[in-house]
Amino acid sequence: MDWECCWTKNQITPEECPYIAEGEEDLYGSLQRRIVDKCMECPRFKNDLQRMKDLAYPLSEVLPHIISEYREQKARMASMASFVNRKTREIKFLHELNVVLQTSLDLDEVLSVAMTAITAGKGFGMNRAFLLMADKERQYLKGYLGVGPRNYEEAWQIWQDIDRTNNTLRAMARNFQRTKLSSEKVKFQDILEKLSVPLADEKHIFNRALRGKKPLLAENAFHNPDVDPGLARILGVDCFLVMPLISRKRRIGIIIADNCVTHKPITPQDMQSMETFAFPVAFALERASLYERLREEVTKQTAANVKLKEQQELIVKMEKMALVGKITSSIAHSIRNPLMIIGGFARSLLKSSAENDQKRSYLETIVQEAKQLEDVLAEVLNYSDSLFPAMDMWDVNQLVTAVYNELRERLMQRGIRSSLEPAADLPMVCIDYKQIAYCVRALIINAMELMTGGGEIWLKTALTGECVTVELSDDGPALSPEVREALTTPFVATQEMGTGSGLPLCRTILEKQGNELLIGDRPGGGTTYIIKLPITKGEKAHG
What we know:
The chain is of the alpha+beta class. The chain has three domains: about 15-60, no CATH class; about 90-295, GAF domain (Beta-Lactamase, 2-Layer Sandwich); about 390-540, Heat Shock Protein 90, CATH 3.30.565. It is built from 17 helices and 15 strands. The strands form four sheets. The protein has a six-stranded antiparallel β-sheet, with helices on both faces. A five-stranded mixed β-sheet has the order 8-10-11-15-14. It has a two-stranded antiparallel ribbon with strand order 7-9. Helix 11 (about 270-350) packs antiparallel against helix 12 (about 360-385). The termini are far apart.
């Protein structure tokens, strides 16, 4: 009998079977494979079966059952192969995810990996996800991070980018952390602010999921009595999945996932996969959070240790300064009385001596040297007094003006031009008037002593941030490194400063009161001195 189909021929030509496509030429010489792959679905074979039935062929009743069973088994095998492939991909994906989560201690990296895994097509393929985490007091669940598109156009752009890059999960997560993490937090800020639920509210779906330790699927959310209508309005979807994050019986938070763009149904298989995913994410989040808190505590302790060391050094320094103050004060008072007697008698003798008296030059030398010794003693006593400041609220403009008027005549005698620019409406500050006035005076005198050939001095006050500043600038020679290094040591000797305590004492006074002295080069030549007097410190002390 001549059959339409080639199922009875071991070897055929291309003209005998038009259903063999390019690349399948090996089927021309393989009857068994040709019957399985082509003939079962061939219209000619179906016609041959019908002819066999019409002719009462012995196998005409058996072959249709065999073919039907074969097709059913083939469909089952295809379904099973698809299931195995899907499970293989899922196991591979979960393995990659676990490796990343187990090796990361950075909270942002863990968040990026977890949220990318939920929303990426290579992961669970959900359109959008929100993370809520328990606060430190474990009183509230609060919105922390949202990931995903807000509309179809944005979703399409994201899917195209993912298809183009073809990265691994770790690469996608790192790219997300580097380029999108901050923007995603801002993008969903309006929703995250509203996703705050007390952990004590046992009826809320979030807390029911945490208590049951299993994912909950909220369907028909706008009309579901078990779902808060306000939550459905905030999310803007009628179906979403709530996945609890629990690590060692500790409630870490929850993840809300939905398909707000594609509206694809969330299947029980999705819930099962997400449940498998939940534990490593919860554990990684807890570990990263604890590590971050530990790092913060270490930073705090380090800062506290540094401050403690500074305080200890300050105490030692203050004890040394107090000892120096007591010694210098005792010596100064012991010398002062005899010195005043010597100077007084020398002045009296000088006044009563004749102009042509040969001894007059000796008396003038005695008076001049006594005056110099009195100035040195005054600095010594000022250093001793600086250890015990008398703090009160004062007007800085009034203080600076008084010192400037006191020294203006001496500046003019030295051929030095000067100007004062007090700022308007300066707040009062808490200072020791006498000591700060000494500092301003010492700065002016120091600048004046260095400007042997005349020059100009500018003095002004200003409000800079939370400080009232007194700035002194001159166009004289700049201070040498030797002088700047010696500023912390009273009674140091340098060529520019001579032997004294002026600038070092200023720094000691200011630092003891919580103020600051800055010395730098003036842009046009010369030196700039800036005294910074904090306002807040003064207001608190005054209060």
